Amino acid sequence: MLKRVATYLDSNAGAPLQPCVVDALLPFLSESDRTLIPNPSSIHSFGRNARRCLSTARQQIAGSLGPKIDPEQVIFTSGGTESNQLAVQGFLGTFLEAGVRPHWITTPVEHDSVLQIVSWFQKRGGRVSFLPVDFNGAPVVSALESLWNEQTKLVSVIWANNETGVVSDVEALSQEVVRLGGVLHLDAAQAWGKLPIDLSRLGADMVSFSGHKIGGLAGSGALWVKPGLKLDSLIAGKQEKGRRGGTENLLGIISMGAAASTLDLAAVESWASSLEPLRDRLQNAICERIPRVIVHGASGRRVANTLNLSFEGVASDGLVMALDLSGYAVSSGAACASGAMEPSHVLLAMGRSPGEAIGAIRISLPREVNWPVLSDFVDELEKIVNRIRVPSGHPEVL
Amino acid sequence: MSGGVDSSVTAVLLKSQGYGVVGVHMQLWDHGQANFEKTGARCCSLADSNDARRVCDSLDIPFFVINAKEVFRDKVVDNLVHEYLAQRTPNPCVQCNIHIKFSYLFKKADELGCTLVATGHYAQVRQDPVSGIARLLKAADPQKDQTYFLFGMTQAALKRTLLPLGGFPKTMVRKLADQAALNVAQKPDSQEICFIGEEGYQDFVEQRSPAGLRPRGIIRSVDGEMLGEHDGLYRYTIGQRKGLRLGRKDINDYFVIAMDSVNHILIVGPEKYLFEKELIAEQVTWVHPISELGVIRCKAKIRSRHEEAPCVVSVFENRTVRVEFEQAQRAITPGQAIVFYDGDEVLGGGFIYRTIRGGEQKL
Asked: DSSP state, B77?
């Protein structure tokens, strides 16, 4: 019943480690005189070595964000969640502290780590507006001006959606925010490595990144901040120029730097051009073989590896579990702390019904996947969906 | 798997018997969601699901959490509120078994491709090799027997149900948990209604219903004497003695005898009025297939902690029965389950609709 070696189709949750990441980490883990993982704040040679590693990683990361990006504008964090919260809380906090009641515009399809800030912000007197999204889940940039007021300080938008893969029009968005005179924060956790990024040509002011989405270690993240932007720290301390206290996660940062070093424009394009045809073939095969399928975000622009589907009359929890038992790892939109699944807020915001929103699964292809694997997956998926759709032999007693 | 001892040991036993086991925890309620603390005897905290998860990890079996909050609220919680407001005393565990554990969970088992479903209930299933009929039998440990709560099981469900604990006393189950080094071995047994906390059911009902559905009224004795006022009939159950707040201080041995739901009158009186011989039960289902419209001699249990008593059951259409006990029974309570036994075997059961009062006891 249980297939031991599982096929991983959940890359958006965490991408497999890149080989170069393993190579970069091994010297610190192998039994040599370097088994020590030093503290970059130390004055001695070990500390200087560690600090050099941080500096290298900072350059590697800056290099993946476009030409002429100053590495010193990269702040290391513990991941995408902290980067988002540092950007939004750290920036809006400066206004709250000054006694101003700032206005913040975000979208209903943000990652939970941004939406969690809403109640924090409102409790402190801030006001929030949500930029609507279209049927595909892409923010409607033209609606921004109608939400704008004199107190509008910040706009936060997810660059590529983690659940649907739908890409926001960040060029139009940044032009509009510049025109209206605000600050733009982009959550690029799912865009990094999947889309060409050139921050030197984009009018964004803060951009969040996550290490384990590009094949680095979880627990590593970064926030790029435009020079001159005033930002409060969330964790007090002298590290990261006072913007993020606490001893740096050296191995995480090295892993993120190594992974980022592979992300030049050509690499990102080759990643997309190898996965997009596979994703589209998978989507077509599923839609041909299985009736009553809804593909979420199908007519929008999506990152190459992501496919989000609902099967009418099928709740995703049973489907994800059954696929797991058959050896396929996919995910469903949202889960609470215990792991019980809830309707996806992203799909609800896109106008899907609660039934469709709790029935959605996300397939996110890792780079290494090939068609024979996906073809087997479609066979299994068809079998399970048909099994779930057969009316239960246990009708309600009462 | 609730995260308690019983379901954990069930998993251990099944695994040792060679089954391919999948652990499932049903999130029924939002108790401990916000905090990470144990909720003691109550269920569905994050700590409980984590306990279940650790047991499955130690057994190296898959573990999933199923969100059953909506169906639980619909079928169990709302039913409880509705029943109290209808002057009945509900049994949410019975509803949960009927609608959640032996219905919704089976649907999920189908989805996962599981052929059998096992629970940590104390009861036994025997399939008759000749007739193919699955029989639901009492647990070997009479103190732990839970068949009263399981009468709503269908043949279809019973035939694919495993109850590995039915043959063990609880002490043995704790010993098995200890031997398997489960950290839940000393966890206390669950108590009372799992989703209602220390506030009690009265507060729970009040928070979930408009005041207009909970009218106040008067208390009068079986002789018609006005004895005071009450704050709503939902606060009382048949046979209740405490908290009556009668106007006359010289009466302290009166019990709730009946409720007049049309005029919102609470009727109280001496204990002898609690004893009655006949009742009507509705929504009756039979675990053991029976012939329609017959008469059955068996024993019946009218609440979970009640000694079963000999009776004659006349089966009517519309899943209604009339039950006549040999001896009058104390405090027959509308809304409670009545379960029919033939020796150790559960025949079926239903919900008490009302009693049929003898001539001299007309209120």
From this structure: I
CB contact under 8 A, A339 and B69: no
Q: Is residue B147 domain-shared with residue B251, that is, in the same domain?
A: no
Q: Which two tokens stand for residue B222?
A: 């079986």
What ipTM score was computed for the predicted complex, to two decimals?
0.85
pTM for this prediction: 0.89
Domain housing B102: 5-179
Residue positions counted in chain B:
363
DSSP code per residue over A206-245: EEEEEGGGTTS-TT-EEEEE-TT-----SS-SSGGGGTS-
Best of B26, B56, B111 to mutate (most A CBs within 10 Å, chain A) = B111
Distance CA A64, CA A216 (A): 14
CA distance to A326, B57, B63, B143, B163, per residue, from B18 (Å): 19, 17, 17, 29, 15
- The answer on B142 and B55 residing in a single domain is yes
Q: Residue B93 maps to which CATH number?
A: 3.40.50.620
Identify the closest residue of chain A to B36 by CA–CA distance.
Answer: A337
- Write out pLDDT tens, residues A90-125: 999 999 999 999 999 999 999 999 999 999 999 999
Catalytic, B194? Answer yes
β partners of residue A8:
A329
Separation CA B14–CA B20 (nearest Å): 8
Domains along chain A with CATH numbers = 7-15+265-389 (3.90.1150.10), 19-260 (3.40.640.10)
DSSP state of B74: I
- Report strand pairing: A360-364 vs A331-332: antiparallel
Residue B57 CA to residue B47 CA, distance in Å, equals: 15
Q: Which residue of B has its CA nearest to A323?
A: B112
The count of domains in chain B is 3
Give B70-84 pLDDT, tens digit per residue. 999 999 999 999 999
